[in-house]
Automatic annotation (TrEMBL):
UniProt keyword annotation of Aminoacyl-tRNA synthetase present: no
Official protein name in the record: Rod shape-determining protein MreD
TM stretches of this protein: 12-45, 100-121, 133-155
Keywords, comma-separated and alphabetical: Cell membrane, Cell shape, Membrane, Transmembrane, Transmembrane helix
A GO CC annotation given for this chain: plasma membrane
Lineage: unclassified sequences, metagenomes, ecological metagenomes
Keyword Membrane applies: yes
Compartments (UniProt record): Cell membrane
Length: 159
């Protein structure tokens, strides 16, 4: 138990560091994938909704602290992502990567919620263009994140 917590904590810290430093370098027209959400989805699907929600909360808190953004915006968004991904937890299914398209779809949904709420709550702009918020800060980052998640699940499944 303690070993799993330490392992997950180290993975989260590494992913947050990558997300804030290297991942913006692979952006496409300002749209970047969110590796942290992929890990939250994996954790929630393996451990259930309650643990996934709490994990998303803690990860979001650390993300807010390290990113220097508005405290609470990532915390709320990643909590929702963990909550939604936890709906897809099944006790009898150990391999969450067995259906890669389902896994990518769950990542898309969780990432869409995360990206939308993070952009909405963390934006300093008074006037938000709703179409920009939906597409540029919601659907496009979610699609990019789900493609990365799909590639990861295909790599893991082949092992």
């Amino acid at each position: 138990m303690i070993r799993d917590i330490i392992k997950s904590g180290l993975i989260v810290l590494i992913l947050i560091a990558l997300q804030l430093t290297l991942i913006p370098l692979v952006s496409i027209k300002g749209i970047i994938p969110d590796l942290v959400v992929i890990y939250i989805v994996i954790y929630a699907m393996r451990n259930g909704q309650v643990k996934g929600t709490f994990f998303g909360f803690v990860v979001g808190l650390f993300f807010d602290l390290f990113s220097g953004g508005l405290l609470g915006s990532a915390m709320f968004a990643k909590t929702l992502a963990g909550f939604v991904a936890g709906y897809f937890h099944k006790d009898d299914e150990e391999d969450i990567f067995s259906n890669s398209l389902l896994f990518a779809s769950i990542i898309f949904i969780a990432s869409l919620i995360d990206s939308f709420f993070y952009a909405f709550l963390g934006s300093a702009e008074v006037e938000l263009n709703i179409l920009s918020l939906i597409f540029m800060n919601g659907i496009f980052p979610a699609a990019y994140t789900s493609l990365i998640g799909l590639a990861y699940s295909l790599l893991v499944r082949k092992k």
